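Homework help thread (please don't just give me the answer)

Our assignment gives two proteins as sequence + structure token strings and asks us to describe the second one. The first is just a warm-up. Here they are:
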Amino acid sequence: MNTVLLDPLLLPDQVVLTDADRRSATAKLDSAVRRGALTPPAASDRLSLLANARNRGDLRQVFAGVADATPPRGLTVALRAVTGVWLVTCVVQFVIWVTLAVFGHFDWPWWLWSDLGLGMVVGILWWTHESYHRKTDVQVGV
């Protein structure tokens, strides 16, 4: 598999910030000021941090103390763990299937059921994780 595909799943905090990520982060800072979660000078300091931020993990420092602005650590860990389990499961089951086929026990690809099921769980976790980076509003008092 391509590293471009796997990086957001296995290393979500190491994904390089895009212009869309920076626009979303700026809008979240503006929202935090409007809602009273940050003072304008604090938001200005965080904008400076944002300008120097290189990856999504750096956003945790930018939004320290601002609720609902970045994905919770537990969600990030869950995404990484479930993705790792899914990839290992896919590879192991495929190797077993191919080995059985080589010895004359060719059967339909039974491994697809678990691979697709776990893949859906990975997809849901990824979608949830990404939603934190795409929203432009923060909640106060959550």
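The one we have to describe:
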Amino acid sequence: MTTASPPAPQPEGIQQRRGAFITHLYGLQRSMSSDNRHAAGEARRTMARLRRCFAGPRQEADAYTTVFDFDPPESEQHIWLLAAGLFALHPQPHHGGHSRPSIGTAMGQLAQDRGDSVQRRFTQLVSVENAALPHYLRQCVQLLATADIPVDYYRLLNELVDLLANDPYGRNAERRQRIRLTWARDYHRASRPTPAATTEPTPAPADTTA
């Protein structure tokens, strides 16, 4: 008699786990500035382990616990680890609200101040093969960190799953292209200079002398 395989996780369950994982990362950022010295120290050590995950397999293994605590699907484990490493490079509080700006929006805001160098980096990001995407994404997040421009990691993790999850039959090709086009559109919109406000000239006071 064969034992039935457990049912695959439902999409909404996976989405909830992704959200809980990113919420935990934002919580680590808050804990780093906590008055509780023990909690702050633990958060800093965890964040340091996550930053080092880009250095090699041994350092990556040190970050597994933080990711595996939230039970990622096997096909997404490497993507969650990437998101955690990116967050550790640019930790920030979550600003809340319904707005979910893409990394294209964030890079467009940066381009208003830094111009062509950001344009070149962003063009690389949206045009490289998926295998090279983590490398260029890391460079973009580091640039955003220098200007303290936030990244919405809830949105970014979901997009990275679509972009980087194994897709041997190309079933997700249209979705992947749409994400890249959305990033490019958002960059274009955000990088436009804000038009200077125009004001009507103040009329000279009327001469009331007789």
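TA reply:
I won't write it for you, but here's a hint about the kind of observation we're looking for: The mean pLDDT is 87.
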